[in-house]
What does this fold into?
Amino acid sequence: QVQLQESGPGLVKASQTLSLTCTVSGASITNSYYAWSWIRQAPGKGLEWMGVITYDGRIYYSPALKSRTSIFRDTSKNTVYLQMNSLQPEDTAVYYCNANVIAITTIASGMDYWGKGTLVTVSS
It folds into this structure.
């Protein structure tokens, strides 16, 4: 049901700021059924959870990225945003928006929905 679409620049320069948008359809980001995360995967590496924003606006970050990462939302546009400062070449990765079913009363509890991902390349 829920669909996610990442969008933003595919190329950024080192030291610059990355801003990505996750456009959600099929569900409201304020629906308590879901929590909304940003996850990335660098070339040849595993998935790295970056942070999450809940249906009621609570935000949690990965300790490794907390100092330069911000997640926020626009409920009127039903979108979730990621902002990361001071990008370096090692931040090159495919960035995904993810919806996790947190409602424990459904059989779908724990299920994940993913966007296609967007590749962000950081040039030195």
